[in-house]
Design brief:
The protein is about 45% helix and about 10% strand. It is mainly alpha-helical.
């Protein structure tokens, strides 16, 4: 957090260099990664999704559930980095909060830059989401904001990350599932992956973990493309065999 804040200070000309660049992080000892009770079971995930898919931003909620994307990644996801035919999304730039204001950033870390495979459920909901954006762009005409974000207001204006959190909390209350943080959806996703026996390296690559403080330290080349089976397997846990996929032409 300090490294990011000081990087902005350099960019804005307040200081000449970032003093946190060479800082060494101490290793945490004897601490769990999560508090008890702040992850959902697949059944609770499903209950929340049944409410979330009726929301205007259903595509984004499904994306969060099936990729473990961070809030900043959801807010910064770009339309031109989504390839629905290939079933892939590239996470690159992010949108973060600095002093209460939403600021576009160049990503959390090198590991944050990644391409993830999308399961058939997520592709279907994102296809409908993209069709909705196209209709809204046509309706607003010249008044449409050309930012090109996947997560945006009807006029194309990028959404403030805190607004995403407020909308998430509202859907959680409607679903009647245990109240967790939006970031804990990410923890729930990783937990589901581990319980399903997905290889640690693939999990780490999909969620953009940099080291062993979250999953395990990853060595070697990234597993792009090898996570396709993992994408489908995890989505199947949440949606179930009787889930009706949306029609892109009928939002």
């Amino acid at each position: 957090m300090l490294h990011s804040a000081l990087a902005y200070a350099v960019a804005w000309g307040y200081i000449a260099s970032n003093p946190a660049v060479h800082a060494q992080r101490p290793r945490e000892k004897g601490r769990g990664l999560r508090r008890k009770g702040d992850v959902w079971t697949p059944e609770q995930f499903t209950a929340w999704l049944r409410v979330a898919v009726a929301d205007r931003d259903a595509g984004m909620w499904v994306l969060a559930a099936t990729t473990g994307a961070r809030r900043s990644e959801l807010a910064g996801a770009e339309l031109d980095r989504l390839n629905l035919d290939a079933g892939e999304l590239e996470f690159a730039d992010t949108r973060v909060v600095v002093d209460g204001h939403a600021v576009d950033s160049d990503g959390k870390s090198d590991s944050g830059y990644r391409t993830v495979s999308l399961d058939a459920f997520t592709v279907a909901y994102l296809r409908r989401h993209v069709a909705m954006l196209a209709r809204e762009r046509e309706l607003f005409g010249k008044g449409y904001n050309p930012a090109g974000k996947l997560c945006c207001h009807p006029d194309g204006t990028p959404i403030h990350p805190d607004t995403i959190t407020r909308r998430f909390n509202r859907l959680v209350n409607q679903a009647g599932v245990p109240r967790i943080r939006l970031h804990d959806v990410r923890h729930s996703y990783v937990t589901a992956c581990l319980d399903a026996g997905i290889p640690i390296k693939i999990i780490s690559d999909r969620v953009g973990h940099a080291g062993s403080d979250v999953t395990t330290r990853v060595y070697g080349h990234r597993s792009k493309g090898q996570d396709r089976e993992a994408a489908e397997q995890i989505a199947a846990l949440f949606f179930g065999p009787d889930w009706q996929l949306p029609n892109p032409e009928h939002p």
